[in-house]
Amino acid sequence: MRIDRFSLPCLLMPFLLLVAVYILYAPGVTGPFLLDDPIHFQKLSGNDGEIDTTGEVLELVGSGSSATGRPLSFLSLLIDDNAWPAPPLEFKITNVMIHLLNTLLVFWFAYRLLTLLSRYSTIESVLLSSAIALIWAVAPIQVSSVFMTIQRMTLLAGTMSLLSLLLLTFAWSQSERNKSLIFVLVAGLAAFVGLFFKETAISTVFFAGCVGFLIQHYKKEHPYLYRTALVFSALLILALLIYYLLSISRMDELYAKRTFTMTERILTEGRILLDYIVQIFVPRMSETGAFHDNYIVSDSLFSPVTTFWSWFFILTFAVISFVVRKRLPLLFFGVVWYLSGHLLESTFLPLELYFEHRNYLPSLGLWIILVLGIYRLLRVKAALAVFVPYALLLSFVTFTSSNTWGQPGVLFHSWLRDNPESLRARIEVIRYELQQQRAGEAQRIFLDGQNYIQKDAGYYLYGFIVDRCNYFDNTFVNYNLDELLDKIGIGKFEHASLEGLNWLTERAGTDRCDVSLEELEQILQEYLSNEAFSEVTGARVSIENNMVKLASKRGDLDKAVRYLDSNYQLSGDVGYLLNAAYLLATADLFEQSRDMLEQARVDIDQSINPIERRKNELELADTKRVIDALEDRKTKAD
User: Fold this and answer.
1) Tens digits of per-residue pLDDT, 553-608?
2) What string of DSSP letters covers 129-155?
3) Is the separation of the CB atoms in 551 and 560 below 8 Å?
4) Which residue among 38, 77, 259, 312 is least crowded, i.e. fewest CB within 10 A of its CB?
5) How would DSSP label each residue in 371-403?
6) 342 φ, ψ (degrees, to nearest 5)
7) Which of 465, 487, 486 is nearest to 476 (CA)?
8) Single pTM value for the model
9) Do 106 and 137 meet the contact criterion of CB atoms below 8 Å apart?
């Protein structure tokens, strides 16, 4: 191929893009695991510290609890390691590589889109696509998507969405309808596969509708593709509505583990969407990061009053963009892209309120508006005079943020300074200070937190654990067990308590922790007595699972089996039946043990999830072999 002044930038721009983005993100790869990272990554431990059998791989990919289970995201963890504990470095490097791949896909998609619009020359398309890809990739709001390691789910779902959209641009460029449909089918397959990385890949349908609108406005070719995208978008909205109606009876239970209602969440998300948009275009270091658990909930449309004005602005802007869609199609394209990208995670589902990674692909629509809008209004020289300083500013903020993410001490302390009321930020700082053997500083931070955190039982449980589990010779907190139980009794639901109970149950009654088994039982019972915890199914299962471990430590077979059966009834997980069968066999109760195995087999045969069924079949076979061996040993002994 002849390299001329048009094709040379096409060859160089992607390479320069990747180099620039890598340089900006490289400092952050030395950072720590955060939030849900350890919860999910410990699944790499398998049965003996690593995953080295087919059954353990199936157990890993089937361990998700969301709608699709996200098996491909969990499978991707094996790229970096098959054991736990594991250092975060390789996982974070892989995340950066995926982000680089997505940057390349954004460039290619934007180039194909601009080419289809037939409004720009080749060199203009290359430069504008490079600008879109660069500013999308280096925007500071993307940093948490890359370095919150488990958000590889978001990155890979984004990969499949971008690949699907890229294939659709090829479908629109085909002169023959049959060839066009082939590209559509492959694009649909890519989006479908994306669902098994993360359910947000479903937004690809809305993005495709936006692309179809823009192409149809300027070229009016292949109208059937645009109509198809609109039909699928309408069906998707209908499916979400049906899902909501079918789930409405369970919404109270699903929201029981949150500190807000569904109405409060929807009201609050209006303010959050505007915060996101401001953070996208005018990033503030003090408001970035992973910890937003102290975000103020909107109690009503006017409390706080910014709730009303946020929703007024969003709805008004959406209506205006619709009214002027024929004169300003680009504006309509970007607004619908962004809002539809948030339709799944920023509406009625009982998710946490605020996470920056939810803007990973939705923000692309806004950047396309900005870059093409500036170019259209100002043309080349003036556009460059605006874009270059702005891109450099974003790059500087991202590099600074990335450098902070790569230094755990600086990272945690900066988040706590910016969010002193955040329980998560405070606990992370305390953990870090304890790891650094700075007990006095950890104690100061904990006691200071009592001025901000009143009803989080997990915070006080954490202080109790630190005090009683060989961290200090002196008193860390100023209350005894009875005072802790009082805090638990009035505490609101939060996940920190569940993590603390798991940790404490493993160590109570050992020389590593001065908490007796009787004290542990009091703590667990108090949590079960608190309706804020006991009415949340997942929380109750977790607490009762610790009761099983406690009963096993004490040799109380009846109580252990009773709680295992309760967990099975609550969760439907046959693993609890298999554990109960094993415990019964260890007590020579083989007939009851085999009854449990038979019940597990019936449940497994009725499973409609092939991965889960195969995983459970392997676990059933392993459990049966162990029980057979115990029975043979008993028979020979007799």
Assistant:
1) 888 888 988 988 888 888 888 888 888 888 888 888 888 888 888 888 888 888 77
2) HHHHHHHHHH-GGGHHHHHSGGGHHHH
3) yes
4) 312
5) HHHHHHHHHHHHHHHHHHHHHHHHHHHHHHHHH
6) -100, 0
7) 465
8) 0.86
9) yes
